[in-house]
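User: Good morning. I'm curious how guanosine-5'-monophosphate would be positioned relative to this chain. Could you predict the structure with it bound?
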Amino acid sequence: MSLVTLHDKQFKPYISAEAIHERVSQVAGNLSADLKDSFPLFLVVLNGSFIFAADLVKMLKFPCEISFVKLASYHGTGSTGTVNEIIGLTENVENRTIVIIEDIVDTGTTLAKLHNLLKHKKAKQIKTATLLFKPMAYKKTIPVDYVCMEIPNDFVVGYGLDYNGLGRNLKDIYVLA
Ligand code: 5GP
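Assistant: Good morning! Here's the predicted structure, ligand included:
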């Protein structure tokens, strides 16, 4: 593997496709052991988690549903402040086990908002599975239940993650050189 250039920046190889595969299959095993009898709904948070989610769900051999969502934040009128909304969620989450699938949990802002919205919609149990987790950046208290890999506060691309639109198609993960 060699350096890749995306826009104005260079990235160097960081986590190989083989290493990713190994950890994704271990996490799939853990999810299966914990949730095989709970008919979970996996909520894939687009865009960055599409490759991780595709690889992960192929390894799950129990009944489950998969849906694709985006988190939207917009400023409400008057005194309502910032309004958060889950775009694309057509399933009823009430009384269900939900697994949020994230590409990367950084400060945890995205995760916390989704968590609150799902709690508000009366989900029975909310779990989180993420490809990458930056523990040193994390500012929330919600447990991140299934983590493939912890990384320091570096900016990474590849395997679904982009830098200004580029790099999502790289099969390995790269870090800023
Ligand atoms: P949080 O809300 O946890 O601070 O941020 C989560 C989102 O920030 C991720 O879903 C991702 O879109 C973006 N993000 C955080 N760190 C990185 C990174 O190292 N690389 C890329 N490509 N996106 C990141």
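The pocket of guanosine-5'-monophosphate is lined by residues 48, 102-111, 155-157, 161-162 (CB under 6 Å). Helices lie at 17-35, 50-58, 109-120.
Let me know if you'd like a different ligand tried.
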